[in-house]
Write a structure and sequence with these properties.
CATH class of the largest domain: Alpha Beta
Number of helices: 10
Structural class: alpha/beta
Helix content: 25-40%
CATH architecture of the largest domain: Alpha-Beta Complex
Largest sheet: 6 strands, mixed
Oligomer: single chain
């Protein structure tokens, strides 16, 4: 196999389809400079490993290399500051940190007026759990005055999974602009975009209307979880914590012989068309994780949320 030609083929597809290329021109040129190094591989496996590490230059964890055996290589390791503590959550739910970490969603009444809901993932593999819990959760949410939804450790998954939660708060007939998605319009010009206005539509005959609706997020809130935060913002929730991760969106698989590469196809933006990549979704109330770090004993973000509800 001619790995130089394979590298060129992959480069052409990135140049044509990668939504963030207009913001990554310098990094893309650095990627191209590694052509000889990557192409010197002796096997498809070695080529894939070298290609994957070289793609890290684009600094996008949604770009993934997958082998024909189904193995997905590690994406770009972003340095994101956590603003939550598994140990603190475990104490809150009176269980072990590992159980909290691997749970799909957990909820409990923190006081007589406030229900706290922790959602660790919107993975499409967990949608059955959401559907099973939804009726019971809706009942509990419906009899509480304040709702705190925590997606700080949530790195995304499926928009459909998140819709089972945000839709509970949007009355039937209402329509809200949640975000704007930018797609590449011209394969030859990375600066030309189509814009898609992503509206959410209410379907609930009796939508929940808590007195205070709060969402907690942070730098490890990524991908579809960022879309969830934007939808909750559009509904009227108050967002607390740190900025979200600021990821690209909708990575689509492109097959190149023995290698498959996921290439992000859109740039998510807030409703005012401000791109969120690198910048993240900005909270209404910022809690700086450096000035107010979360520890096994203290959670400043959750404490601020409780203060906001009037406890």
């Amino acid at each position: 196999m001619n790995y130089s030609e394979l590298f060129d083929w992959i480069s052409q597809d990135i140049r044509a389809h990668y939504a963030r290329l207009c913001y990554r021109q310098k990094e893309f040129q650095e990627f191209l400079q590694e052509r000889d190094n990557v192409s010197s591989a002796k096997t498809a496996g070695e080529f894939s490993e070298k290609l994957n590490k070289t793609l890290w230059k684009l600094r996008d964890n949604h770009i993934r290399v997958r082998l024909t055996n189904g193995k997905t290589l590690k994406g770009y390791p972003r340095e994101l500051k956590p603003n939550y503590s598994w140990e603190y959550c475990a104490r809150l739910f009176k269980t072990k940190p590992d159980r909290v970490k691997h749970a799909t969603l957990l909820y409990k009444r923190i006081n007589s007026k406030t229900l706290y809901l922790l959602i660790n993932s919107f993975s499409k593999n967990r949608i059955n759990t959401f559907m099973r819990e939804a009726p019971k959760l809706r009942e509990k949410l419906g009899i509480t005055e304040n709702v705190i939804i925590d997606v700080r450790p949530n790195q995304g998954g499926s928009d459909k999974t998140g819709s089972l939660i945000w839709s509970l708060f949007l009355p039937k007939g209402e329509k809200k602009l949640a975000r704007v998605l930018k797609y590449r319009a011209n394969p030859r010009d990375p600066n030309e975009f189509y814009e898609y206005e992503d509206y959410i539509h209410g379907t609930e005959e009796k939508a929940l209307k808590p007195k205070k609706l709060l969402v907690l997020c942070g730098q490890q809130t990524e991908s579809s979880a960022e879309g969830f935060v934007l939808r909750m913002k559009a509904i009227g929730a108050t967002v607390l914590g740190d900025r979200t991760g600021g990821t690209s969106g909708r990575p689509l698989p492109h097959v190149f012989g023995p290698v498959e590469v996921d290439i992000p196809s859109w740039i998510p933006c807030e409703s005012d068309r401000t791109p969120i990549f690198d910048r993240g979704v900005q909270p209404h109330i910022k809690i700086d994780p450096e000035k107010a770090p979360t520890t096994p004993e203290e959670d400043p973000t959750l404490e601020k949320a409780l203060e906001t509800t009037g406890r």
